[in-house]
Amino acid sequence: MKFLFFRATPRGNIEEVEKHNPELMKICDLLQVKYTPEYEAYKIARDYFLKNDYDCLILATDDIVVEPYHLRLLIEDIKDIDVPIFSGMMNVDQEEYMDQWGNLNICPNLPSKNRRERSYEWYKRNTLPAQDIFQVSFAGFGLTAIRRDVVERFTFDTDSIYKGNGPASGASLDLVFCYNCQDKAYPIYVDQRIDMKHLRTSGTSQVGIREKEILLNNIKI
Question: What stretches of 37-80 adopt beta strand conformation (E)?
Fold first, then answer.
């Protein structure tokens, strides 16, 4: 199987995240779309993926510390268990990393499509199922692997589509993706052994400050 690991990096300046890239690139191709609004970056990544012969698209935001063993374990899961979407997990808030009462970016149920009414039913470390691999309804893009047939079927949209507005006025691409999966009966599975640090408040957005860059394995394309 051939994998494309994609990161939208509007910041691209979190050292604890970036330092692992050389080792990650030894495992599979790494595509970075830097200094670009996320909705635009995800469109670029999806187009590149579909134009090439990859089997699976792996997503992670630019503030997650993905270490090589996380990526290797995810790829092992994909090869061993035939499901359309597989994901790791991470703390929601930076200060709650490894806190047993801290929120994780996965939910048993989907929150409202309406942003004003939206409330997430987060798993906490002390409420996780006993088994390592389990099904969820929502998984934020925390090292999330998506099979090619699913990528072909869905574009990456922001929640502004629920109000008929353009993508720039919305957010929550992961939520819209999970709703699409639910509507078309694509199950989402999480491996809780893939447990990553989310540096949510680190770094500074450089969208509009630096020129957009598209890099494949650190080479501009």
Answer: 56-60, 64-65
* pLDDT single digits (tens) 195-210: 999 999 999 999 989 9
Instruction: Give me the CATH number covering residue 193.
Output: 3.90.550.40
With a cut of 90, say whether residue 163 has pLDDT above it. Answer: no
Length of the chain, in residues: 221
SS3 of 162-182: the string is HHCCCHHHCCCHHHHHHHHHH
φ, ψ for residue 2, nearest 5 deg: -115, 130
Q: Which domain holds residue 204?
A: 3-220
- Number of folded domains that form the chain: 1
Q: Read out DSSP for 132-172?
A: SEEEESEE-SEEEEEEHHHHHH-----GGGGGT--GGG---
The Cβ of residue 205 has, within 10 Å, a number of other Cβ atoms equal to 14
What is the rounded CA–CA span in Å between residue 106 and residue 91? Answer: 9
CA distance 171 to 157: 8
Reading the block at residue 116, the tokens are 């004003």
Against a cut of 0.85, is the pTM above it? yes
